[in-house]
Specification:
It is built from 14 helices and no strands. The protein is mostly helical and 307 residues long. The two termini are 31 Å apart. The relative contact order is 0.14. The model has no long low-confidence stretch (mean pLDDT 87). It binds zinc ion (ZN) (2 copies). One zinc ion binds next to helix 2 and helix 4.
């Protein structure tokens, strides 16, 4: 395992220490409720609905004011600005589990969960990569603007937390919430390529994993997502709860979103493999070691990169 060097990554490690200390010293029912509310606002509405299904995959259309509001919520999740996030995630789909995938799960669970931030994040967000993978957002002055103002927006959020509840507000509103929400996203990248089952042969390691779905507003039906990347719905079976999809349905019924993309019933049945309850819950044996080099683990021969 390499020693972390990037200040960005070191900040994340220090944040874990501060978050644990805050939970130990300042745990209260009100703090936990506020955490869950922020997790829903920034994690579900900001990241999974806004950054992921809307901005990255354009799984539905939303009026400009709604799209931009969701983008600001995503930005407050502190996982990077929309231009960076979408560029990284589009590279993940382009090169899933191969060289070029920012969190290539073939390098082991730990790399795909957190270590990739230290080693692979920045090479994936150079100007060239951003132009290549997020041209739609790069060409929009709003997204270029919030990218420039990112530190100011974050500072404003920290001040807001401080005015609301002093240092306890900063500890829970910034550090505990940051750690809680980043692991939601990271578990999709790691456990969503390691535990559970492959309903569809997608040519990568992506899996449907019940327990990842529970902690990630149901982004954990990740193999379904790799099979149908532009689908607004990831939970494709009746029992696969998909909270983000429920929000999209609600917005659609309220007339706030349109052109919601879904695969047909026939498409979802084609090539789908049967699964058992153990696999569905994500309780199967891990498909990856904790640490691995790309030389140790290779994808089955003959699989092509899906774009
Ligand atoms: Zn994936
Ligand atoms: Zn995706």
């Amino acid at each position: 395992m390499k020693i972390p060097t990037r200040p960005h990554y070191l900040f994340l490690i220090v944040s874990h220490g501060i978050a644990l200390w805050a939970i130990w010293m300042h745990l209260s029912l009100l703090a936990v409720l506020a955490l869950l509310l922020m997790h829903f606002m920034f994690g579900c509405l900001g990241i999974t609905l806004g950054y992921h299904r809307l901005l990255t995959h354009r799984a539905f259309e939303a009026p400009r004011w709604l799209e931009r509001s969701l983008a600001v919520l995503g930005l407050l999740a502190l996982q990077g600005d929309p231009i960076e996030w979408t560029a990284v995630h589009r590279q993940h789909h382009r090169f899933s589990d191969r060289e070029g995938d920012p969190h290539n799960a073939s390098r082991g669970f730990w790399f795909s969960h957190m270590s990739w931030i230290d080693q692979h994040y920045f090479p994936c967000v150079t100007q060239d990569r951003l132009k290549k993978y997020s041209p739609d957002l790069q060409n929009d002055p709003f997204y270029r603007g919030i990218r420039l103002c990112y530190p100011v927006i974050v500072a404003a959020w920290i001040l807001f937390c401080w005015f609301l509840a002093g240092w306890t507000g900063v500890l829970w509103g910034v550090f505990v919430r940051l750690v809680f929400t980043v692991h939601m996203t990271w578990f999709v990248n790691s456990a969503g390529h390691c535990f559970g089952f492959q309903a569809y042969d997608t040519g990568d390691r992506s899996t449907n994993c019940g327990w990842t779905a529970l902690v990630s507003f149901v982004e954990g039906w990740h193999n379904n997502h790799h099979a149908f990347p532009s689908s607004a719905r990831h939970g494709l079976r009746w029992w696969q709860l998909d909270m983000t999809w429920m929000v999209i349905r609600l917005l659609e019924r309220a007339g706030l979103v349109s052109n919601v993309k879904l695969p047909s019933e026939q498409q979802t049945r084609e090539g789908r493999k049967p699964d058992g309850w153990r696999e569905a819950l994500g309780l199967s044996r891990p498909r990856l070691p904790l640490f691995a080099s790309e030389e140790q683990i290779k994808l089955p021969a003959g699989k092509e990169v899906r774009s």
